[in-house]
Structures are given as C-alpha cells and as structure tokens.
Design brief:
alpha+beta; two-stranded antiparallel sheet; 10 helices; 6 strands; 56% helix; globular
C-alpha cells in the first residue's frame, strides 16, 4: 500500500517497466544449460517447466502447489540456497528438500557444473565475478567457522547472477535516460527498485515512454535467451504495477 503514496503530478503518469525473471535468464545464459535456455527460447513458464522436470510429469499436470515449489527451487538456486534453507522456506523435511535439489540439478546439469566451478574458482582467487568482470571479494571463504564458509560459498554462487542483473540494470538506466533526452521527451527517470524502472511523464508521452523503456531495457545486454519486460502505467506507483 506504500506504493499509493508515490503519486504523479496532475497531467502526468508513472510508467513502470519490470524485468521478467532476469536472474533466471542470466542463469540460463551464464551456465550455458541447454534445457533452461530452450525453455526461455520457447517462451515457456520456467517454473511450470522446472516442476515438470523435477517431478517427471507433463506440464499439463503441474498443479499450482508443484509450480510454487519449483519456483522456490529456481530462485533458491540463484541465491545459493542449500537443502536446509529450502526445507525451511517450503516447510518440508531436509531429505525432501535435498531430493528436490538433486532432481533440479539432474534436470539442469549445466547449472550444477557452473556453480561448482564458480565456488572452486572463488576459493582460489578470493572473489567471484559478474558477466562484466565486476568482482565481489569473499574473505569468508577462508574462514575457520563452517557457517561463515557456507555463507561465502552461497555468495560466490549468487554473485554472478545477482551482480550481473545489477550491472544490466545500470546499463539500462543509462540507455533509458539518454534516449529520453535524445528524443526530446519531458519524461524523467524517477527511480529504480530491484528489477524495475519508473519514469514520470506527461500523459501524452506515455506510449512513447513505454516503447523507450521496453526497447532500451530489453537490449541493454545480449544474452542467449531474450530479456523481456512487463510495462504498466498509472496515476500512482500501485496502479503502475499492473
């Protein structure tokens, strides 16, 4: 409800563009996993597709509960989550969580290979890198405390995806700002929140701004899978979230 407090002035609107599953798309690209890449190239629902692979059932038989569990695994992997964390978030046993993760890696073998290599390389160099070479130094990898080392390993797994998403968002911000100025539009980039950009503009510029956001955000990086955005508008930020 706090979004209702962000209100456009009279005669102006807020246009909100949100990257769709950017971290999972980066995961598909950066790991080179053919199965995950194909799902995005086919425009499939990645969580439904993952559930079908994990439970060995047709996508048509995936229930909302199974899709929700697969979604938790998809994003859990991005954040370096292990069996304990997954068991806590899904309220299931450690054994079941471990089995789900094992089946996930069977479905997407390229992901496991990549994450294992990332952790091994980070232990050697002391840092993990984004796709653009931005480094995150991880001294915890050398800690004597096992919990701290575990944190370091999860950070090493997460940084290539989440860090690259942050890099791409910064590139998108520059592109959107420059394009608005270049086309002489009165819209202005108001804020960036996680995976979304919000532009405030006159009502008559709304369609042009939607096009600028879509084109510049979706072409901010060249990946092996498409970057896609969801664009909505409104008088306040809540309305603009669609």
């Amino acid at each position: 409800q706090l979004r209702k407090m962000f209100v456009a002035p009279a005669g102006r609107v807020l246009v909100d563009a949100d990257y769709s599953q950017i971290e999972l798309r980066i995961l598909a690209h950066i790991t080179g996993d053919e199965h995950m890449q194909q799902a995005f190239l086919n425009g499939a629902d990645i969580h439904r597709s993952t559930a079908a692979k994990i439970y060995h059932i047709p996508e048509s038989e995936v229930t909302p509960q199974l899709r929700s569990r697969a979604k938790a695994v998809n994003f859990g992997i991005v954040y370096g989550q292990q069996a304990y964390g997954l068991s806590q978030s899904l309220h299931i046993s450690m054994a079941e969580a471990r089995d789900m993760i094992d089946r996930y890696y069977e479905a997407y073998p390229g992901v496991r290979t990549f994450l294992d290599n990332v952790v091994a390389r980070a232990k050697q160099t002391g840092y993990a890198e984004t796709m653009y070479g931005r480094r995150r130094h991880i001294p915890e990898l050398k800690a004597k405390n096992p919990q701290l080392r575990g944190f370091g390993e999860r950070t090493a797994m997460n940084h290539p995806m989440q860090g690259t998403a942050a890099d791409i968002m910064k590139l998108a911000m520059v592109r959107v700002h420059d394009r608005l100025r270049r086309e002489g539009l009165r819209g202005r980039l108001l804020m960036q929140v996680h995976d979304e950009l919000i532009v405030e503009c006159p009502e008559e510029e709304r369609e042009q701004v939607e096009r600028v956001l879509t084109e510049e955000m979706e072409h901010a990086a060249e990946l092996s899978v498409p970057l896609t955005t969801d664009v909505h508008w409104g008088r306040n930020w809540l309305e603009a979230k669609g």
